[in-house]
Amino acid sequence: MNSAIKEKLIEIAKERISNDDISHDLEHTLRVLSNAENISKIEGGDLEVIIPAALFHDLIVYPKNHKDRYKSQEESAEQAGLILKSLKEFPEEKIEKVKICILQCSFSKGIMPEMLESKILQDADGLEATGAISIMRTFASSSQMKRIFYDPKDPFCKTREPSPFEYGIDVFYSILFKATDKMHTKTAKEISIRRTKFLVSFLDELKLELEGK
Questions:
Q1: Which of 4, 18, 23, 78 is most buried, by CB atoms within 10 Å?
Q2: Angle at which helices 186-210 and 131-145 pack, to 10 degrees?
Q3: What is the structure's pLDDT at 111?
Q4: What does the alpha-carbon distance between residue 54 and residue 156 come to, in Å, rounded to a whole number?
Q5: CA 101 – CA 115 distance, rounded (Å)
Q6: Residues of 12-30 as b/e, b for ≥16 C-beta within 10 angstroms?
Q7: What is the mean pLDDT of each run of 10 residues along the chain (213 residues)?
Q8: How far apart, in whole angstroms, are the C-alpha atoms of residue 143 and residue 181?
Q9: Considering its fold, how many domains does the chain have in total?
Q10: pLDDT at residue 73, rounded to an integer
């Protein structure tokens, strides 16, 4: 992609993305962009589709406990389309592909991406659900949702099903530990495996601390 167009898209993202939810703020978007570009270097894909899709995939974000949370991708895709149509220098024939990538971005919905670019974007966003970043995002969301850290009777879901809307640690079992299996590209899967090992070590340390050790 032309560097001037890329910089213009980044500036638009800076103007349009809200920082009210720090789990889906500008820094999250820029990390997803970096993930996507790094994956694309190895896996291929059209950066003229991948870059704007990564930058605009979270233009609209509803809180995870909001009744309209499943509309975030649809509304973000529509907004992205309008932005790109207003840019004469952006190839009009690629706008629809950008919108498809955004619509298929969320792996938590169980969406199977159709295009390589969609797979790369979903993987890039999914990597935010692994490793140190995922822990910070989980508890940032917990604060926003007034969700407590863990179930004091069974912190590690030994005798119950995970309840991610009630307890922060339950997100590990319902989402974070499942991220690797949902990766589409070899590159993202390898990164996710390494990051997941860190999640395990975090819970091991938490267990020791809760036992007073």
A1: 23
A2: 60
A3: 76
A4: 33
A5: 8
A6: bbeebbeeebebbbbebbb
A7: 91 90 89 97 97 94 65 90 94 95 80 91 96 95 91 96 96 96 96 97 97 93
A8: 28
A9: 1
A10: 87
Residue 18 phi/psi, 5-degree rounding, is -80, 145
pLDDT at position 108: 63
Helix (H, G, I), strand (E, B) or coil at 24: helix
The tens digit of pLDDT for each residue in 59-80 reads 988 766 556 666 788 899 999 9
Burial track 143-161 (b if 16+ CB lie within 10 A, e otherwise): eebebeebbeeebbbeeee
Q: How far is CA 146 from CA 63, 127, 169, in A?
A: 12, 25, 14
Print the domain residue range for 33. Answer: 3-210
* DSSP codes joined into one string, 108-152: GGT----SHHHHHHHHHHHGGGSHHHHHHHHHHHHHHHT-BS--T
pLDDT at residue 122, rounded to an integer: 95
Measured from the Cβ of residue 84, the count of other Cβ atoms closer than 10 Å reads 20
CA–CA gap between residue 123 and residue 29 (Å, rounded): 13
| Amino acid in the structure at residue 135 | I
E strand or H helix at 155 = none
Model-wide pTM > 0.85: yes
